[in-house]
Each structure stands twice: as C-alpha cells, then as structure tokens.
Amino acid sequence: MQNIDWSSLSFGYVKTNYNVRCYYRNGKWGELEISSSEQVSMHMAATCLHYGQEAFEGLKCYRGKDGKVRIFRWKENCKRLQSSAEAIMLAKVPDEIFKAACWKVVQLNKDFIPPYGTGGTLYLRPLLIGTGEKVGVGPADEYLFMIFVTPVGPYFKAGFKPVKMQLVRDYDRAAPMGTGHVKVGGNYAASLRAGERAHHEGFAASIFADAKTKQYIDEAGPANFFGIKDGKYITPDSGSILPSITNLSLRELAADMGLVVERRHVPIDEIGTFEEAGACGTAAVISPIDSIQDRENGTVYQIAKNGEPGPWCQKLYKRLTGIQFGEEEDKFGWCEFVDVD
Ligand code: PLP
Ligand code: COI
Asked: Which CATH class is domain 163-324?
C-alpha cells in the first residue's frame, strides 16, 4: 500500500508503477505490453499530433466495503471508444484487448487503489492515438492503445456540494454534425477557453448551449446535465453531447426509484423551473448545481436551496456510489470484480 493521503486526493495525476500498451501495426493488434515509463515515444509526424486523431476514455475502479475490487460498466466505455474510433477513423480496439488491458493495469497497480471509506477511486484513462506518420491529411496506419491509472478524489473541489455554473453561447465545443457525440481530444481543446473563462469568473464549469440554435442546453465541459422537477428526471437529447455512462446509469436508477425519465431538448429558459439539477460523469459523479448564470444576459437561475444538494440528487448519489462501492445490491450487474490478491 502506498503512503498517500487517500482522503485528500483531488482529480489529478499521481505517478503509479505501470501502464499497459498495445500497438496496431500492419493491419493487426499486437500483444499487450507492460511499461513503467511515463513517456510515449512516437514519430514527429504522427497523426495524433497534427490532425487530432486521438480518442480517450475514463472509467473507475473501486475498493468495496467487502474489500473486493470492482470495475464499473467497462463494456460501455469499450463500446464508446469503438464509436469514437469509427468517427475519426482510428483502428478499433476489440473488446478482449480493452478488457485485458483494464484488468492488467489494475492488478499491476493494486497498491494505488484507494482504501474503502476514503472516497477515493482508481481512475483508468484509456487512450487511443494515431502514431503512424502522415503529412497529407489522412488516417494513420499505426496506432497505440494504452491505459494509465491514477488515484483520484472529486473532480469538482466542492465534492458533493452544489456548484455555480455558467451557460455560454459565444463558444461551441462541438458542431451539430461534428464529433460532440464521441470522446475525442478536439472537443476538449474547443472547450478550454470557455472553461478557463468560467473559472476566472468564479464558476466551477461552463455549460454549452446547442451550437445550432443556442436555444437548448447541451452539456457541461466534462459532464452531462440533468434537471429534476415534478417527479421527472430530465436530460438533454442532442446529437452533439457525449452519451454519458453515468447519465445512462442515473436514468436507470431514476426510473427504478419511480421518477419519469425524459430525454428531450431542454430549453434554456426551463432552467428556472427545475427543483434540482446536476452535472454527471465518471469524474464528477453527481455534482449538484447551485445556480446557472446565463453569461449573455446576466440572468442567474437559482436552483439549489440553502447551498445543499436536493433530496433526489442525494438519493441518486447514494444509490449509484452504493453500487460502485459494494454497499448496495448491484441488481443491474454493473460491476465486475478484479482479482488483485
Ligand atoms: N460529457 C463529457 C464532455 C465528458 O467528458 C464526460 C466524461 O467522460 C461526460 C459527459 C460523462 O460521461 P461518463 O459518465 O461516461 O463519464
Ligand atoms: C470523465 O469523467 O471520465 C472525463 O473524462 C471527464 C474529464 C476529466 C475529461
């Protein structure tokens, strides 16, 4: 076990012992390799460096109440990486390589899995990049798939406390028929200016309006949006947001808990009618939203009451993290065990 202050971890990089790598060359994937280097060596004309041929994932591994180690819904992350690969013409990582890489990297770094009760988790960051050289615009013929891990705490410093967010219309993270629905680096590059400005102006994150009409909520920089009112869990339906696995899970839990689930356009002027709202994602889990400022006209929509998470956010958070940490029955079969001993 490492000498780390597990309860004070933030969402950042901590050096671990190993990462795993697999190369795609001559039309096929090679063997899974173990590396202890933090560096990646590649050709200076690699397509990931010039033409953004890069996709990534994020999933977590949990030390449960029973001491067992769980990975949450890896198949969904694998499917999404395959759909990212399809969108920007990367070589697709087969399920068996994705799974073997997840299991191997967790086993190799078992000493970095935060103990149960500290709130920490081991974050897995799969990465798929075009490493083949290409000067004319086109897809590479060599790829690297790798996973590194890092022990993490909450993405938003506040943890499970409502945060202020800022709605922006003057930057778009993704075009309507572009790559917003997949997890490729370019979307994040496009979101940096709005995100940094939101931080400077005192907000935890920016929320993007839909790029085409600017009438509807799309999503936050690193997380999906949901609102709750009148017994309904409401979340945007948009072709340019990332299909969040946390949101998928929350929709299933919400329905199971008796809420009506609606996936539809969410007009910006509906924000003020929500009894509760949150941003959800693997890193963010659920970050309850205190208020949203519409940057264009200065309107502030106050959502949380007295700076506290609302009752549905609390219930959903407890069910979701309860399943992940083995405190509640995993009746949907979302967790798979990794034997680390
Ligand atoms: N939206 C964006 C833009 C993200 O980067 C993420 C994080 O992966 C999410 C939503 C949440 O997705 P998930 O719940 O699958 O982590
Ligand atoms: C995640 O939730 O896994 C993310 O990828 C969000 C962000 C850190 C990019």
From this structure: alpha beta
pLDDT at position 1 over 80: no
**pLDDT (tens digit per residue) in 174-203:** 999 999 999 999 999 999 999 999 999 999
Could you give the CA distance from residue 318 to residue 300 in angstroms, rounded to a whole number?
29
Which residues 6+ apart lie within 8 Å of 87 measured at CB? Answer: 179, 181, 182, 184
Quickly state the pLDDT bin for 154 (edges 50, 70, 90).
confident
Q: Is 281 in the pocket of ligand 2 (CB under 6 A)?
A: yes
| Top-level class of domain 6-152 | alpha beta
Residue pair 9/2 in contact (Cβ under 8 Å)? The answer is: no
User: Is 58 close to ligand 1, i.e. is its CB under 6 Å away?
Assistant: yes
Say how far apart CA 25 and CA 251 lie, in whole Å. 40
Ligand 1 atom, smallest distance to 282 CA: 16
- Which atom of ligand 1 lies at the shortest distance from residue 57's CA? 8
Looking at the CA of residue 282, tell me the nearest atom of ligand 2.
2
Q: Which sequence spans correspond to the domains of the chain? A: 6-152, 163-324
Model-wide pTM > 0.85:
yes
